[in-house]
């Protein structure tokens, strides 16, 4: 289970595979200077609510992975996540499809 740390104050746990994919999407958006919302659901053990944060290029975001190997990235899933990030509702975690994967850390620049 990896951790996303936002503005040094908020931490959230995500599966390493999910975290790797949202890192690519968040990085692409912030690299272009775009701000956006990111919403996810809490685990049932902590209330089953949801959290929304405003991601901005000036606010630090850190990713800590449990595993030592980078997961293979699924280009189609990244594109689906990017579509949500580009919407007015912001980035939301959608289910992964079974599309072909790409090499760890390799993603098209146009995402």
UniProtKB/TrEMBL annotation:
Keywords: Ligase. Residues 1-96 form the DUF7882 domain. One of its GO terms (molecular function) is ligase activity. It comes from the Bacteria. The keyword Ligase applies. InterPro entries: DUF7882 (IPR057204). The keyword Ligase applies. This is ATP-dependent DNA ligase.
């Amino acid at each position: 289970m990896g951790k996303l740390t936002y503005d040094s104050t908020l931490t959230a746990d995500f599966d390493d595979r999910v975290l790797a994919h949202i890192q690519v999407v968040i990085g692409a958006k912030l690299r272009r200077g775009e701000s956006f919302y990111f919403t996810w659901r809490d685990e049932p053990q902590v209330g089953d609510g949801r959290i929304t944060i405003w991601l901005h290029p000036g606010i630090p975001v850190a990713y800590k992975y449990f595993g030592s190997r980078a997961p293979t990235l699924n280009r189609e899933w990244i594109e689906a996540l990017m579509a949500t990030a580009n919407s007015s509702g912001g980035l939301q975690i959608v289910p992964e499809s079974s599309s072909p994967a790409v090499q760890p850390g390799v993603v098209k620049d146009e995402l």
